[in-house]
Amino acid sequence: MKFFRSTLGYMFAGMIVMTVWGWLAGNYGMLGGFAGAILIIGPMWFMNHYVGLIQNDDDAAFVDMALGIAVTGVARDIFSFWLIGGSAAAGELFVDTLPTWGLVVLGGIIGGVSAALIEKDMAKKAQEDAYEKTAA
Amino acid sequence: MTAGLALTTVVGGFLFPFAIRMMWGKMVESWGPAGGFMAAAFIVGTVWTINHGLAQPLIKQTGAWVDMAWAAGIGLIAATMVLGGKLSKAWTNILAAITGGIIGGFLLAVLIQVMVDNGINYWLPFIP
Q1: pLDDT tens-digit profile of B41-60?
Q2: Which residues are CB-neighbours of A7 under 8 A, at least 6 positions away?
Q3: What residue segments make up the domains of chain B, in order of their start?
Q4: Which of B62, B90, B113 has its CB closest to that of A60?
């Protein structure tokens, strides 16, 4: 049941982001894209992570709905090349995707780990302050 | 891809999970569920403008659409692992994300094929 619930959540978010957002940005430019974040990510976050359609346990690494959205984007383009241009075109597109993919994932890992280390530092500071207060 | 654009692509990937970790939780803590909508607008919306919105965005695309969501998806797993979350307990959700993404992506490809057949192309910037 957990797998089914989560799959549904990731799929729903991915499908709506990878259609409507492009349309908004294509027709209304930067403001359309900004509106896309409110109109799509807002309710999808509410359903998936606030109501909890996707169940993330406290002691598990957090798998954001972003991962579902990310996979949908690549799958959409590779499948559409496959349906329209055949498997050779799809394979070529997949290889072309790898440089951007590698760099974005690298940046993401550095960003996530940096933020986590900063959060640890902030928590340490807060703890020291609390200790000083009780000691005084 | 030039070395410069490779660097901006890495930086674009850095910004998104970093901003989410720094602000999203605090916004929800401060304003409840409305904080999540604020976060959607002012974290995702704002970072989107520089990563994808600009005519020459930070993230340089070379093939299929690599959304900044890749950075958040993988980056947040890495961040929560540093903070003590176990990868071994996250596999169900990771597999669910891959499965859901592949099914969703296939359905959209079917839609796109119909659109191409009928000469409709209404989400222009993202379809080759």
Answers
A1: 999 999 999 999 999 999 99
A2: B96, B99, B100, B103
A3: 3-126
A4: B90
